[in-house]
Amino acid sequence: MLSEMEVLQILEMVKNEHLDVRTVTLGVSLFDCVSHDIDIFKEKIYTKITRLAENFVSQCNVVGQKYGIEVVNKRISVSPIAVCGGGFTSKEFIEIAKTLDNIAEEVGVDFIGGFSALVEKGMTNGDIELIKAIPQSLAQTNRVCSSVNVASSKTGINMDAVYMMGKAIKKAAELSASRDGISCAKLCVFSNIPQDIPFMAGAYLGTGEPDAVINVGVSGPGVVKKAIDRALANNPKLTLGGLSEIIKRTAYKVTRVGEIIAREVAKNIGVSFGIVDLSLAPTPNVGDSVGEIFESLGLTSIGVPGSTAALALLNDAVKKGGAFASSHVGGLSGAFIPVSEDLNIARAVEEKYLSLEKLEAMTCVCSVGLDMIALPGDIPAETISAIIADEMAIGVINKKTTAVRIIPVPGKKAGERAYFGGLLGEATICEVQHMGCSNDFIKKGGRIPAPLQSLTN
Fold it and tell me: Is residue 194 helix, strand or coil?
């Protein structure tokens, strides 16, 4: 239960500190829509999703207005399309993507995720055809998001899939060159992907999930920063341990708000409530930045020595506070460090406080991985694949989710700027050292075996 003072603090968060519910995501299973006939399959998924999502957006708005807290994004995730459409060709998968895009537009959601494949141990024909279809599918749709899981701590890293994804990212960027490769912002490569992510571009509904479910992603980096600033104003000698306690209590309040709204939306549309994803998700707005939290903790900028330790503190405190607030925590949960989507982090790259190498180091302790990073357009597909492989190894060895959402910007070089617009923001293009030096390694393919700690049965 929240005390009277904590209720007043939440009201202040809503009014002045950018507190919102970042996303409420409706998960829809498509396994009962499977058909060998592409037209029947498209008709079935249209009928099911539109039926379940008919009142979804309106109920998010109603519940948000009731509590005075905005639900910023309304999204849908579906079962992995490579599984549901295992017998289709790449051209037919593109048709499915367009159908999903039309559905998303009709029901009024911002994005629909689940154009996905799970290939951590090997690839079926359906997986291969879907991956081939990803560049065209993302270039020809506005709201479809794609994720591919290429590694896990139990199975190792599927390097054949990693190489395919490097090529897919390169092609997707080229097909959206007029918009700085924006199609890649809708594509994420994972290790240890959770089945219940509400955030895009990774969201899909796993095989062990209900037929329909509501998952929620909270926000609150601005709230956390203000809480730290207030605490230090009252007690300048507060230690990092004391600040961790402040972050924990703040995460508790934010999580409770998110769960209350998600449960009511689920009840109103007649589906199950799933999980709360505790991830601190920034925006390009001033005062809504994860990067600014690092400065409040005493660092000149995110990226300087001490940044990895500060991120570990932040991630741990958010998870502890959120887990105390809810028994149903899932998704990614922690702190995002997406470069273009966070004004402060984007500035740190521009001012050379933060490099690609430091970002990779920080992903050892953050929620996701290399996220929304603009790279030079002439980067080879093999180098993209090598960056993916390095990040997947961090996830596999550390038994954590890691992901890569990088954007090679066609026609632009390191130091120039990429402009994605809206929530996706803008960023200075990072320098990539030693491009082309990993080609022979990547082309060997095969599977990097799982680490010894995978033998936990």
Answer: coil
Q: What is the pLDDT of residues 44-56, one digit of tens each?
A: 999 999 999 999 9
- 6 CB burial (10 A radius; 0-12, 13-18, 19+): middle
| Of residues 86, 112, 136, 120, the one with CA closest to residue 190 | 120
Token pair 């730290």 is found at 228
Contact present, 21 and 254 (Cβ < 8 Å): no
Q: How far apart are CA 221 and CA 276, in angstroms?
A: 16
Q: Where are the domains of the chain?
A: 1-457
CA distances from 439 to 81, 120, 159, 379, 388 (A): 31, 21, 12, 12, 13
- What distance in Å separates the CA atoms of residue 14 and residue 7, rounded to the nearest whole number? 11
- What fold, for 1-457? Anaerobic Ribonucleotide-triphosphate Reductase Large Chain (3.20.70)
* pLDDT for res 10: 60
- Judged by DSSP in three states, 375 sits in strand
d(CA 14, CA 23): 16
Strands 212-218 and 21-28: antiparallel
* Measured distance CA(244)–CA(235) in Å, rounded: 14
Put simply, whether the predicted model's pTM sits higher than 0.85 gets the answer yes
